[in-house]
Amino acid sequence: MTEAAQERGPQPGEQRPEPADAREPREQHLGPVVRRRGQTLAGTTDQRLLESAGPSDFIHQDPWRVLRIQSEFVEGFGALAEVGPGISVFGSARTHEGSPEYAAAVAIGRGLAEAGYAVITGGGPGVMEAANRGASEAGGTSVGLGIELPFEQGLNQYVDLGVNFRYFFVRKTCFVKYSQGFVVLPGGMGTLDEVFEAVTLVQTRKVTRFPIVLFGSAYWEGLLGWLRSTVAAEGKVSPGDLDLLHLTDDVDEVIRLVAK
């Protein structure tokens, strides 16, 4: 723009040029985002939400995040509304094909699908892939609810219906809302988070009472023993609260427990 044009200002039909700081890239898609295999991110959306602070951030950023969060709920609810009865299967993403746990997860996914349930997982590798695989190979509904992570590999190949979320709490809400029970195989921090969050929601009657099945007694018995000998013994929970967790090594019993 010439100096004369700058002095006279924008004329009718002309667009005022944006200041440099207004031309920063912005996220255009408000709903769950699909990441391509191998794509890296400079921090996740959750991280940017939780680490931002200060009046300027609230004024210029957080209202738009509220719209994105709202859009994720709408997209997630819309995608899952017609899935039908579902059971969520959790477990380690580090479980390898060929391991007993992987084979058990395949069998559980297959059994749930044959019993008429949609199998819902986090959509990742390991136990999640195995449960989705069992459901898909049995001709059932195989659902994956992915999450944006710096190291996530994307949805596994056995997911028939996949939704990718930016925000953990939106994804967690969809797991609970569209499941009639949880089946939990051995896993790490994320798996433990799902176990305790689910049992808390049931114990406080925030959700209708539904089964939470822990598969693999060798893995879970130590945790249950500590809950009995320490947590319940000291009165931190009621004795009946531990009955909300069902422990088994039998795939057929898993299906019976969730069906009952």
TrEMBL record:
UniProt biased composition (Basic and acidic residues): 15-29
Extract one GO BP annotation from the record.
cytokinin biosynthetic process
User: Reaction(s) catalyzed by this protein?
Assistant: 9-ribosyl-trans-zeatin 5'-phosphate + H2O = trans-zeatin + D-ribose 5-phosphate; N(6)-(dimethylallyl)adenosine 5'-phosphate + H2O = N(6)-dimethylallyladenine + D-ribose 5-phosphate
Region annotation (Disordered) maps to 1-47
UniProt-listed Pfam families: Lysine_decarbox
| InterPro entries, alphabetized | LOG (IPR005269), LOG_fam (IPR031100), LOG_family_nucleotidases (IPR052341)
Tell whether Hydrolase is among the UniProt keywords: yes
Enzyme Commission number(s) from the entry: 3.2.2.n1
- List the SUPFAM superfamilies hit by this protein, alphabetically: MCP/YpsA-like (SSF102405)
Molecular function, one GO term: hydrolase activity
Annotated family: Belongs to the LOG family.
NCBIfam families reported for this sequence: Rossman fold protein, TIGR00730 family
Per its record, how is this protein called by name?
Cytokinin riboside 5'-monophosphate phosphoribohydrolase
